[in-house]
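Tutorial sheet, problem 5. The two components below are modelled jointly, 228 residues in total.
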Amino acid sequence: MTPLATLVRSPIDPVRLVQAVSSPGNGAVILFLGAVRQVNDGRDVTGIDYAAYEGMALRELQAIVDEGAQRFGTSDVVVEHRLGELTVEDISVGIAVGHAHRDAAYAVSRWVIEELKRRVPIWKREHYTDGKRQWVDPSGHTAVGSKQ
Amino acid sequence: MTVTVLLFASYAEALGASSLALELSDEATVADVISSVRAHRGADKLPSAPLVAVNQQYADAAAPVRDGDEVAIIPPVAGG
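Model answer (structure tokens):
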């Protein structure tokens, strides 16, 4: 297959991601799932809504999987990011990689999630048990949009 | 010329709008777009040098903008 990035508003199906990157030549298949965590920075989270600059987010995600595939020598890379309202334990992002060997498969998977967090214009607003909602500002991390 | 400015997440909340249509002089740059946005109520919440994309590509402050461009002001990204 060719590397594929998708933004979705319905639940991510991990099995489908794995199937998309499985092939007779791939001795290693890695699946990474990001999920909504119940506690963040000491606050109880009941859910998250994800928003994106959709055209650019899709373009950046596709550029990331294309570049990752090229760097690490496989074409079997898929990423799906969910948008909209999610609840605790829901899968927000899924990355599947197939490669002949495990070292490269792990490397692609890790590279894709780190690049995604650094440069894809997606934002999340956490919902707390007290009913408040707040956009997450990861300043201090390495996101391209972090305050300087 | 006219450019469309897109605002997202905390920036859209701060300015109370998800897009603005701005009239700018010819030969304006990204920096001029940001200056113009700063005249709007709530824009004091923007950082001193926000991240910007022109027509869906990250651009620096000196980059030129053209009539009809889509200029997005990108809050700190938080995907994943």
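Marking note: The beta strands of chain A are 4-8, 28-35, 39-40, 43-52, 76-82, 84-87, 91-99, 122-128, 133-135. Full credit if you identified this.
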